[in-house]
Specification:
The protein has 347 residues and is an alpha/beta fold. The chain contains 10 helices and 10 strands. Helix 9 packs antiparallel against helix 10. It is found in: Membrane.
Length: 347
């Protein structure tokens, strides 16, 4: 039977703690399924891990709820993994969470209560504070969100995590978005509906270390800005206008000095400095425009966002005394959600 809720969990080199995480997640999800009379499933999406996360996930025990494992052909990035999970989720409602243990499964009952009992369409987790992070990272995040929301029609909540639940109509709206340059937090904010923030404190990683280096965060930030916000173009235009105004004032000051005080016009240094400033500004603006043009080219080429290498569906025991069923398919013979766009991927 079709699940009521799919729990999508992207994986990247999480083999060390996956078994323990799966046990916690399955226990809580199965308990909520029995309490509320819901059908749930877990969808693990392996984003080209270098360890054996995909094989380990495919062999995880079925502890009361169905388990899907979607192994991508290479590392496409977290945004692509989230999209793959959304495409393959069989449930109408979808809950997204990370597989490193920092998104506590114990919050699932809270999300279900907000969706089922209080009627919220999107409930998203927000970090209570970032006091445990370096000051440089906190400053970078603050600047990023200021730029992202600068002139934006829809405000994206600061410090919001990918840990969130989407009601059936919110998930259906997200599935209808065909763009390939995706920023998950921005898209889930843009669709609207009733949304609520849920404060949480991330749990410490039980194993390994984060794969999000500063350069990867910078790349993701540029991806988010250019795919969801006109802020870089607007800031470049404002910078150019300010530079032009300063140049006009400086030119007028030089004329006043020459006519009223007889001060000779300095030649070579002022020309060189002026050319360097103007040239640097032009290169900056061209670079920003190039980022947007690259995104346009990516959309026009319409390449699949991801490719699936293996797809496993392990079913829980049937309710009416049936036996446990497990199936493994290659090339995605277990179809994705019917409203998923087939052109997005080669499932």
């Amino acid at each position: 039977m079709t699940p009521d809720l799919s729990i999508v969990v992207p994986l990247y080199n999480e083999a060390g703690g996956l078994a323990g995480f799966h046990a916690r997640l399955s226990a809580i999800a199965a308990s909520e399924a029995r309490t509320r009379g819901l059908r749930l499933e877990i969808v693990y999406v392996d984003d080209g891990s270098r360890d054996n996360s995909a094989a380990l996930a495919a062999g995880l025990p079925v502890l009361g709820i169905d388990v899907q494992v979607v192994a991508l052909s290479r590392n496409f990035g977290k945004e692509a993994a989230l999209m793959a999970g959304l495409d393959h989720a069989r449930g109408d409602a979808v809950l997204f969470m990370d597989g490193d243990g920092q998104h506590p499964p114990e919050m699932i009952p809270t999300f279900l209560r907000l969706w089922k009992d209080e009627g919220w369409d999107v409930a998203y987790a927000v970090k209570e504070d970032r006091s445990d992070e370096p000051a440089s990272r906190r400053t970078f995040v603050r600047i990023f969100y200021r730029m992202l929301n600068f002139g934006a029609s829809t405000r994206i909540p600061e410090d919001a995590a990918d840990f969130r639940i989407l009601s059936p109509r919110a998930a259906a709206a997200l599935r209808r978005m065909p763009e390939r340059n995706r920023f998950f937090k921005g898209l889930t904010s843009w669709i609207g509906f009733r949304q609520i923030a849920v404060p949480y404190r991330p749990a410490p990683r039980a194993h390994g270390s984060s794969s999000w280096s500063f350069l990867r965060l910078l790349g993701l930030s540029m991806e988010a800005l250019t795919s969801f916000s006109p802020a870089p173009l607007r800031l470049a235009a404002l910078f150019g206008a300010a530079l032009a105004g300063l140049a006009l004032l400086y030119g007028g000051w030089i004329v006043v000095e020459r006519l009223f005080w007889g001060i000779p016009l300095p030649g070579y240094p002022s020309i060189v400095v002026g050319l360097m400033v103007i040239g640097g500004t032009q290169l900056l603006v061209m670079g920003v425009m190039g980022e947007y043009i690259a995104r346009i080219l990516s959309e026009i080429k319409a390449r699949p966002v991801y490719y699936v290498a293996d797809h496993v569906l392990n079913r829980a025991a049937a309710e009416a005394g049936g036996h446990a069923m497990a199936g493994q398919v290659a090339g995605g013979q277990v179809p994705p959600h019917p409203v998923a766009l087939a052109s997005r991927a080669e499932p």
